[in-house]
C-alpha cells in the first residue's frame, strides 16, 4: 500500500507542476478609451487601455494606424504612474476616419499578449 500511495503522490505532484504554467493569469485587456468599435465625435487626446493586472513598461506598447496603415501616433505609450494596469498613448489630432489600435503587453508573469481593435472619428 505504501508503494501505491507514493506513486499516487508523485503523480499528483507531477500533474500540479505541469498544470501550473497554464493556471498563471496573463495580462488581458479589460477596457479601452475609445472603446473597441466606437465612433467618437472628436479626436481623442489619448488612447487608454486598462488591463486586468499590472503591465511591464519595458515590454508594453500601443500603436495607432490610419486606414492606409500609417502610424499616426509617434509617441511611446506609458504606464500610468498611479495605476500600473493602465497604458496611455497621447494622440495628435486625428482626421475623420477609421483607426486601428495595436497593443502588446507583458504582465507580471512575463508572458507577452497582443491584440488590436478599431475605432472611428466622425
Taken together, the total number of domains comes to 1
Rg over C-alpha atoms, rounded to the nearest angstrom? 21 Å
CATH topology grouping: Immunoglobulin-like
Strand order of the main beta sheet, please? 1-3-6-5
Task: Give the class from helix and strand content and strand pairing.
Answer: alpha+beta
For the largest beta-sheet, the strand count, sense and barrel status come to: 4 strands, antiparallel
- CATH class (first level) name: Mainly Beta
Low-confidence stretches: 14-24
Strand-residue fraction? 35-45%
What's the CATH architecture name?
Answer: Sandwich
Mean pLDDT: 87
Determine the number of helices (DSSP H or I, runs of at least 4 residues).
1
**Spatial gap, N to C terminus:** 74 Å
Overall helicity: 10-25%
The topology string of helices and strands comes to HEEEEEEEE
Approximate shape: elongated
Query: What is the tally of beta strands?
Result: 8
Structural write-up:
The strands form two sheets. This protein has a four-stranded antiparallel beta sheet, with no helix packed on it. The chain is built from one helix and eight strands. The N and C termini lie far apart (74 Å). A hairpin with a 5-residue loop joins strand 7 and strand 8 (112-121). Helix content is 18%, strand content 37%. It is elongated and about 75 Å long. It has 122 residues and is α+β, with helices and mostly antiparallel strands. It has one helix spanning 2-23; strands spanning 29-33, 39-40, 46-51, 61-65, 78-79, 86-90, 97-106, 112-121. It has one domain (25-121): Immunoglobulin-like.
Amino acid at each position: 500500500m505504501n508503494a501505491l500511495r507514493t506513486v499516487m503522490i508523485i503523480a499528483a505532484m507531477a500533474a500540479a507542476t505541469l498544470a501550473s504554467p497554464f493556471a498563471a493569469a496573463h495580462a488581458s485587456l479589460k477596457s479601452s478609451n475609445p472603446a473597441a468599435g466606437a465612433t467618437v465625435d472628436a479626436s481623442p487626446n489619448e488612447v487608454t487601455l486598462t488591463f486586468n493586472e499590472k503591465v511591464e513598461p519595458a515590454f508594453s506598447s500601443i500603436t495607432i494606424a490610419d486606414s492606409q496603415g500609417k502610424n499616426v501616433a509617434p509617441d511611446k505609450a506609458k504606464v500610468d504612474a498611479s495605476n500600473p494596469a493602465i497604458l496611455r498613448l497621447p494622440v495628435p489630432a486625428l482626421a475623420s476616419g477609421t483607426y486601428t489600435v495595436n497593443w502588446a503587453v507583458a504582465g507580471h508573469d512575463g508572458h507577452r499578449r497582443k491584440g488590436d481593435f478599431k475605432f472611428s472619428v466622425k
